[in-house]
Amino acid sequence: MSDAGRTLLSRLLRLESRFTWDLKKKDLDLEGLSTRLQEQIDLGVGQQSAIANSYSFLAYVRYLQGRPEEAASLLSQSEEKTRECFGEESERRLIVTYGDLAWLSYHSGDFTQSDTYCRRVEDILVKYPTGSPTVLHPEVYGEKAWTFLKFSVHYYPKAIICFLKALELQPDDSEWNAGYAITLCRKELIDPETFLEAEESPAVKQLRRALEIDPDDAVLLALLALKLSSYEKHQEAESLMERVLEIGPDSPHVTRYVAKYLRQQHTETLNIVFLIYFRILKKAQKSVLLPAVLEGLANFAHLINLEFFDDLLNVLQNLIQSGDLTNRESLHCIQTAFNILSGQGDVLNIDPLKFYSHLYKTLLRLHAGAPNGDIIIVLRCLDVMLTRRRKQVSLQRAMAFVKRLSTLSLHVLPNASVGILASNRAVLHAFPKCDLLLDNEVQGSGFFLPELDEPEHCNPQNTALWELHSLQRHFHPAVRRFAVHLCHGAPSDGSAALGVELSRRSPVELFEDYSVKDMTFNPPVATPSTKKKDRFGGGTTLLDADLQSRVERALTATEEETPDFTAAYTHTHTESDT
Known about the structure:
The protein has 578 residues and is an all-alpha fold. Among the domains are: 1-156, Tetratricopeptide repeat domain (Serine Threonine Protein Phosphatase 5, Tetratricopeptide repeat); 390-526, no CATH class. 61% of the residues lie in helices and 0% in strands. The chain is built from 27 helices and no strands. The protein is globular and about 100 Å long.
């Protein structure tokens, strides 16, 4: 090895990176870990910062699997997500990512690129010194801890140490407190100790501490409920779970904990409830209880046993085709079907095309009147049907939904328009080729059939999202911002990028945030100015300079200087006679 190579290797060994944290391949279940991390990315589990970390975690796994090109791509995506999430404060969050990129470039033989990433890390450390060479930034301790926690149970003690060091530097940080609480919970599961009271458990103590900082963290609330339930504090546990369902009903991570709690506490009750539901669906389809049954199934479909799935999907399909359901009831049927298919039901060989077609047909029945409240069900359906199942959805189907949703956004209330446009943004990110709809050139043969209710056959590639140009003149500022953002292809940076307050929130959250049900406008309407405007503005008011000068002379003339219009007329008359 040359002197330059040895110098570079010496610098690399000083970096904080997964390549230097002594992560032994023999301790890792690479296939299982790879699957879990990919699912977390696909489902968008956790906050945006957690998703960014999942990309970098998966990159290291791909390197260990002998796929360095994919690892480099994942690290680049991690950098992009981190910058999108933290903006100007992202540099310290990128120390480990740049360290991984430096090592990956080194192992690929690209020493120049490796040196570039080394310099980036060194520049960040100079810009943000810790005061001691043995002390790391809390962001580095945090990412190191999350890595140990996710990679293997063998590294849980190291994860605890790293979270504690991060908390020494930032004791009130919500992320480090939550991570420490989760680690303690997992440690107590694999290494149970006997605590007579719940408050003696370190995990319970830390969960309460983390919830003091972030009382609306649904995952922590669910974990605390599970811990309290194990100590037979059922009343408090049930109260916590009710809050969980209010805060995060659409989070797959939260859903898993809720299901675990319900299986522990209410297995028999659930069996009875679902038995009643199924009897009503099969034998009392005209019952007044049907709407409540469909809504209940939509919310708890993921708890139904696998052996009921096939029959239940057939019943739901027959209900929809009967034409006897309201729009809301039909939407609940669709939501139930896809909640089943996105969970354990993905092993079933069932083609849900008819459910896609029915949702596509139902969209244009919604409007700004009473059905506006049904849009929130549509948004939940779209998340499951298009975003999470993107690998099973054709480009034609995705473009058709984007087009029809854009049309729907023109005749619903502002909060529904914002939610719909946010869903379109998610679809554009999941299907980048949908940007064909931003071009006015015809793709292929045929022409767009807007009246056709089959998304696969309406030729959406031969139309354009002209609705976005109309929405750029919408009275609501959030709708205008989304329309401009989508017209530019939904970029993550630049002048057309969305702000953090819009880009980090889900379509359902945006629908609720901008709701006008309480007769309030978000953002508030500015109060009229009380300052009186001047009657006349300054400056030249006439285009003709000669006429303007005459007017000014007339306005400034004194009473003795009364203009003699007769003389002026006579002079002109005499001159013309001549």
